[in-house]
Amino acid sequence: MMRYSIRGPHKGPALLATAVALATVATCSNGSPSGSGTSAASGTTSGTSASAVPTSAPPSPTPTPTRTYPLSTAPRTIPAVRDHEAARGPGWKPAAPAGVVVAANSAGLADEGRLLAGELGIPYRGTVAAGPGDVELALGGTGARESYTLTVRDNRVRITGPDEAGVFYGTRTLKQSVKGTGAMPEGVVTDAPAKPQRGLNVDIARKYFTAGWIEDRLREMADLKLNQFGLHFSDDQGFRIASDSHPEIVSAQHLSKAEVRRILALAQSLHITVVPEIDSPGHLGAVLRAHPDLQLRNVQGVPRQGAIDISKPASAQIVDDLLREYSALFPGGWFHVGADEYQALTVRSPSTSYPQLATAARQRYGPQAGVQDLAEGWLNDRAAVVRAAGKTAKAWNDGFFRGGVVTADQRIEVEYWTGKEIGARPPAEYLAEGRRVVNLNDEYLYYVLGEPNQFTYPTGRRIYEQWTPLVLRGTTPVAARYDPQILGARFAVWCDLSAAQTQAQVANGIRMPLTALAQKVWDARTPTLTWNQFSALATQVR
């Protein structure tokens, strides 16, 4: 989060035809059938050559030689599959009479089936028994959430998973493999993500992005098995979604609620959760332009940009109105309440500069309380509002303070982005407190338009070669024991200098960084491909 101060086949004599064929087909490879001269156990040839074939009559053609194949290799996809059990066989290609079918008791996979059929150019046949060449989708099994098993055998594909998302990710593997090579190799893929939260964050408050652009990003994310889209739609520069409770704050360029519902429907079909964000108590400039009486002012009466006066009950009321309104609009399980860079806490003596905040803190939390405690209480109150609507609250790491009277609610997820704020706390502090953290490291994962304040556009190569979810701040990873508390990561687009790039340029600029992130949050192991190999693969399969 970038902010103010930091931010054809061989022919021969007829008499020899059969024998020559038996001897020569053993040289076939790359999934082509080989003859009886190939060892089914090892895939190596027996050494028989055409010159050794006798000129006497060929042996009886019965029994017919067994068709064998070389051992398959794992499908080439992004992210790479976690495990592939090789097998001998021709693999699978989308050719007649192939179709997509849904198994009994799996009717919920109809949308996934229709989508895959369209992508592969084969018919969708609904809930019927699988036939020759078919792809069958089925719910079942006891694996982890979002896991799947993809089996290619006897010219059929079967994708199973304990939930619809897992089966969907199996269809993404099939789609990519077919797009890259024309086929899906024989064998069994067993796959699951390393992290439960994997995604993209986009600031549409500073720069308006069309609904169509957002929908394109969702489709791109889905093929990379990313599942979370953060939508930062309120900031000083704009408020970009229509509001029924406070229409006076909405910017001229904004998404209608009909457009948002269309985005949400697409996201749901792609198993992506959209996480809305209304940042407060800072970054509320668009709201405060319509309500200047709520703007924070210091003891000299000087206003602070984007900051709302949290000592006033009306400030909480308007923000809570908006949180409730958009909690009803967005069906997902999270709501981001911001909490970063409250300007009252960036001065030498907050209590001296903002005596009204200091007074309110003491009145509510006791004589030892200060402005920090009032801000922490504000965070807890906003988290309680979205929790009452069935959401888990998220907040930026610089809204969690040490040493105060008030402590941030343990249920709030920490979205770690920076260590540059005043009183910066290292990531290990949050983790040692038992907090759950999502990685948005501004060193690797921040795409800030115009590259202000020493930000540079991140590269996919740097993410791929250097970053892991353990690298929460700077370039140094936290201890591996904290890995279970790190829920995942999102790549973030911030539009500080909004005119620096067009929508198309942003989409192109984030393409490979987002691709690299997808690999690193799906599989925690060191990638086997070099960056150049990975980049070339991305061109083939995406």
Description:
With 542 residues, the protein is α/β, with parallel strands linked by helices. It is 30% helix and 17% strand. It contains 14 helices and 18 strands. The strands form 3 sheets. The chain has an 8-stranded parallel β-barrel, surrounded by 4 helices. Strands 1-7-5-6-4-2-3 form a 7-stranded mixed sheet, covered by helices on one side. Strands 11-12 form a two-stranded antiparallel sheet. A hairpin with a 2-residue loop joins strand 5 and strand 6. Helix 4 runs parallel beside helix 5 and helix 9 packs across helix 10. It is elongated, with a radius of gyration of 29 Å. The protein starts with 16 loop residues before the first helix and ends with a helix. The N terminus is likely disordered.
Radius of gyration: 29 Å
Number of strands: 18
Mean pLDDT: 90
The number of helical elements comes to 14
Structural class: alpha/beta
What is the terminal-to-terminal distance? 28 Å
Unreliable stretches covering 5 or more consecutive residues: 1-66
Please report which band the strand proportion falls in: under 5%, 5-15%, 15-25%, 25-35%, 35-45% or over 45%. Answer: 15-25%
**Biggest sheet statistics:** 8 strands, parallel, barrel
Q: Can you tell me the overall shape?
A: elongated
Spatial arrangement of strands, main beta sheet: 8-9-10-13-14-15-16-18
Helical proportion?
A: 25-40%
